[in-house]
Amino acid sequence: MLNISVVNIVCTILNLLILYIAFKKLLFGRLDEILKKRQQEIDEATDAADKAIAEAKASKKEYEEKISFAEEEKEQILADIKKQGYEEYEKIVDDAKKKGEQIITEAKHNAEVEAYRTRDKYAADIKDMVIDAASKIAATKHSTEDDLSLYDKFIDEAVSSKNG
């Protein structure tokens, strides 16, 4: 049968206590240090990851702001270019209008000068014809019938010289 002795129980308890203290000091102490170091490494890695995430979020926000600013700047540049294009268009149209008006003015002036020249030429021709007719009339004796025939002849010559 089984004997239960108090000495055996006390020795067993004592052995267990010694083993517990020895394991705790020698084995679990080192294991606790390793676990603590590992926990510190994990905490440091977590902190570094949190910092990296925060930096990434800040960079993303900065990037989005830059993109937004770039879009606004692009729109402003396009608006400025359109405005400049319209101004250039208006300037070209105004210059063309001024040149057109200048050409029309010059053409009118040239037409007037040409009309004056033509009028002066016809006036000179008429003057010569009148002088010629007057000299013919003065050189001949004339009657009313002669005057009418000379007048008709004068008009015919004036018309033929004008057409020819």
Please, could you describe this protein's structure?
It is a single chain. It contains two helices and no strands. By secondary structure, the protein is mostly helical. It has one domain (6-163). The protein is rod-shaped, with a radius of gyration of 62 Å.
Topology diagram in text:
Elements: H1 6-139, H2 144-163
Main sheet record: none
**N to C succession of SSEs:** HH
Terminal CA distance reads: 168 Å
Tell me the radius of gyration: 62 Å
Q: Would you report the number of β strands?
A: 0
* Whole-number count of domains: 1
Low-confidence stretches: none
pLDDT averaged residue by residue? 85
Structural class: mainly alpha
- Which descriptor suits the 3D outline? rod-shaped
Oligomer: single chain
Short note summarizing the structure:
The chain is mainly α and about 160 residues long. It has two helices and no strands.
List keywords for this structure.
164 residues, mainly alpha, 2 helices, 94% helix, rod-shaped
